[in-house]
Design a protein that fits this description.
With 736 residues, the chain is an alpha/beta fold. 35% of the residues lie in helices and 14% in strands. Bound molecules: iron/sulfur cluster and zinc ion.
């Protein structure tokens, strides 16, 4: 090991600890010692200190102990004559620096509460690009990915690349390998975060590129994140430093890329990271620390070219990534799932109320389809100009000895996240209300609709290879073809929905969970019972059952409903226990049959949203396709925005269109007869079933008593209509 690098890092450790001691003294003069300190919304205090030392830093006073600990860790200064064959002193100096950095950042939260933007996304307009410490909500959602393998690890990049294009190239290579990219520190005032913004790359937790802060001290947020994962998911006890560091070395595949001049402070930080088993690759000529010992291979490697940075880092960290080659011109992977295509980035779109966009998966005979055949019938992206729209029908035919028709809805629902995995493409909705937004950047790279077929073919084979042998995809973009597919699809949806028609919640002991939507709404868990289909309309009880058969460890798990805790509102002990676990404690219980008393949570996929209309003593519901005003004062988009994050919102509930006419629909609040207003298209769509249910409930003319937008879009406008028709809701018990 080079004496020089040890000297620099130890020097750095001294500098950092002294500086932070100074800042701490200053803070004690400004604030009283019992002033609260800490990172926002976390149960892990200052996580590096808490995890390694077991100390809960909650006040200024509490900082004293860990700071003294850091001071005592500092090794004796190296004299030039000393021979230093061991890593020990270097590691200690590094650790002292990291502990001091965490206190420094906590002091920053105290002194400059607005310095960091407390959000998952940056706000470019407001110039808020530094996100600081991840709060526990973000941590729970993202941290688990480090454990379940959907993110193999993270690349902590400090400094800045020589230019934005190089920064972009390095980061995209990591994204393609599903790694998180944590950004900290600046090089001569420039940061990778700013370079990425300049190069048009979206940054934030959603795209796995997280700008922590502009100073090297903010790199401590990356280590704090890793240690929280070890505590929360690895069962490591706070204070068990040895196990903590070993866990990170063995389980969290992280490393540092130092872009720019490595001074004493960066040197100390790099030395600190070696304790975690995280090596540093630098693009500059710094003394290397090659012998192995703590890290799996080398500790510090210099002079790595930018082209080789990703490859080399992965090799040195000993990371195995399963790269699945999907032959499309855009990058592909879960890292792009949360990416949005904003108006300014939009090239063209299909569906979303502008045109029809429909998805259908159907079983075929083995001899009738050709595996890998992908056809676009009609105009494709190159025929469009910016701002154009196109109808789209995605028709997937699947064949296989083991393939049953029951599996069709499960495969169909994959379209949502698989299309979202394509960089620059966004997918919303399902069935005949799908919506595809194509970004300019994707079109520049050469994206065409055929690529959707390529992705579906490849991924359905990869993920469902055991039940299928052949996949053929046809993409229709001519209006007549799309209309014909939609007509056929509607019949299929109807048949699927009707399969649960004669089942009741009372007679089934097993309900199913669905956590497919947790990538968008992290705490959201749908529970699907026979009489309450998933709020997206795409999964009913039968579908969940089939999904569980195909993939027993997948997103649909059987739940033994257990003891009924409330017959009126529909609440079961087994469901509560499951939901509490699957929402990681965020949701402890919910009711199946009420929109007022602890209703089920809602995610952004819901087909419709019900809302109370107090003056009418009733309920309205609005579906995604309806763009106009509603009597509750909010349109669908506003409602979905307010409640689509997976939170419980009493007075509102997301549900499927089909659910309106299921027998248990809000029975706890009075049931279907509470419905006083629906948009005309929704009313039309479920007309037959509405009429049948009205008769069943002893109100034969019920369908005609429901107001729609032609009657009015305020409570005042519809009330006289309800009175005139003698709507049953007006005579029911008060709702609240
Ligand atoms: Fe599953 Fe619910 Fe999402 Fe539908 S909305 S995919 S049922 S979690
Ligand atoms: Zn959803």
């Amino acid at each position: 090991m080079s004496k020089l690098v040890a000297f620099a890092a130890i020097q750095g450790g001294y500098n950092i600890v002294s500086k932070v001691e100074g800042e701490y003294k200053k803070a004690l003069k400004t604030y009283s010692a019992d002033t609260k300190v800490g990172f926002p919304n976390t149960a892990y205090y200052l996580p590096v200190i808490y995890s390694l030392l077991g100390d809960k830093v909650e006040t200024l006073e509490d900082m004293k102990k860990p700071l003294e600990f850091a001071r005592n860790l500092l090794p004796p200064q190296i004299k030039s004559a000393n021979h230093l064959p061991y890593l020990g002193p270097l590691l200690d100096a590094g650790m002292a620096a990291i502990l001091a950095f965490e206190i420094k950042e906590a002091l920053r939260y105290l002194n400059e509460p607005d310095f960091y933007f407390h959000s998952e996304d940056v706000d470019l307009d407001a110039g808020k690009i530094w996100l600081g410490a991840a709060d526990d909500t973000v941590f729970r959602k993202r941290g688990v990915e480090f454990v379940d393998g959907s993110a193999p690890g993270f690349a902590a990049i400090v400094g800045a690349a020589p230019d934005p294009e190089i920064a972009k190239a390095i980061v995209e290579e990591y994204q393609n390998k599903s790694l998180y990219i944590f950004l900290a520190a600046n090089h001569n005032g420039t940061t990778v975060a700013e370079q990425l913004i300049e190069a048009g790359v979206q940054i934030g937790w959603g795209t796995r590129i997280v700008p922590f802060g502009p100073d090297i001290s903010s790199a401590v947020f990356a280590l704090g994140f890793a240690n929280r994962a070890a505590m929360a998911f690895g069962g490591i006890q706070p204070g068990d430093a040895r196990k903590m560091l070993l866990y990170n070395k063995d389980r969290i595949f992280a490393f540092v890329n130092a872009l720019g001049h490595v001074g004493t402070e960066w040197g100390a930080a790099a030395a600190g990271c070696i304790n975690w088993g995280f090596p540093t690759m630098a693009d500059s000529d710094i003394p290397e620390v090659l012998p192995t010992g703590i890290c799996t291979y080398e500790h510090v490697v210099a002079n790595v070219s930018h082209e080789e940075m990703c490859q080399k880092s992965i090799e040195i960290r000993g990371l195995k990534v399963a790269v699945t080659e999907i032959d499309i011109p855009c990058a592909f992977g879960p890292a792009y799932e949360g990416e949005r295509i904003r108006k300014a980035d939009l090239h063209s779109q299909m569906g979303g109320g502008k045109t029809q966009c429909t998805e259908l998966v159907k079983r075929a005979e083995l001899g009738d389809i050709e595996d890998g055949k992908i056809e676009v019938i009609g105009p494709d992206i190159p025929d469009l100009k910016e701002g154009d729209t196109l109808p789209l029908g995605i028709f997937v035919q699947v064949a296989g000895r083991e393939f049953q028709s029951d599996f069709e809805p499960i495969l169909e629902r994959q379209t949502h996240h698989l299309v979202n995995y394509i960089q620059g493409i966004m997918h919303i909705g399902q069935r005949d209300i799908a919506w595809v937004r194509v970004g300019k950047a994707a079109v520049d790279k050469g994206f065409t609709l055929k690529d959707i077929g390529v992705v579906l073919h490849a991924k359905l084979h990869q993920d469902f290879g055991t039940i299928l042998d052949k996949v053929q995809v046809t993409l229709y973009t001519k209006e007549d073809d799309v209309a014909a597919l939609t007509k056929r699809a509607k019949e299929e949806y109807h048949t699927r929905d009707a399969r649960v028609d004669n089942m009741t919640d009372e007679n089934e002991e097993i309900f199913y969970s669905c956590t497919l939507c947790q990538s968008f709404a992290p705490n959201h868990v749908c529970t699907v019972s026979p009489e309450r289909t998933g709020l997206c309309g795409a999964y009913n009880w039968m579908d969940c059952k089939a999904s569980y058969e195909i993939n027993p460890t997948g997103p649909n798990q059987p739940i033994e409903k257990g003891e009924c805790l409330d017959t009126k509102y529909g609440q079961w002990k087994g469901v509560n226990d499951f939901v509490q676990k699957a929402s990681r404690g965020a949701v402890t219980h919910y009711n199946f049959y009420s929109m007022i008393v602890d209703p089920m949570t809602t995610c952004g996929c819901c087909e419709a949203i019900a809302a109370i209309l107090p003056m009418c003593n009733g309920v309205m519901s609005v579906n995604r396709e309806y763009m106009g005003d509603t009597p509750c004062g909010m349109g669908f988009t506003t409602l979905a925005g307010v409640m689509g994050g997976g939170a419980m919102s009493p007075g509102f509930v997301g549900h499927s269109k089909y659910n309106i006419t299921q027998r248990k629909f809000i029975t706890g609040d009075g049931g279907l007869l509470r419905i006083v207003w629906l948009p005309k298209i929704l009313k039309e769509e479920i007309k037959d079933r509405l009429i049948a249910r009205g008769e069943e409930m002893g109100v034969p003319g019920f369908y005609d008593m429901i107001a729609d937008e032609t009657v009015g879009v305020t409570e005042d406008e519809i009330y006289p209509f309800l009175e005139e028709k003698g709507h049953p809701a007006l005579k029911m018990d008060p709702m609240m």
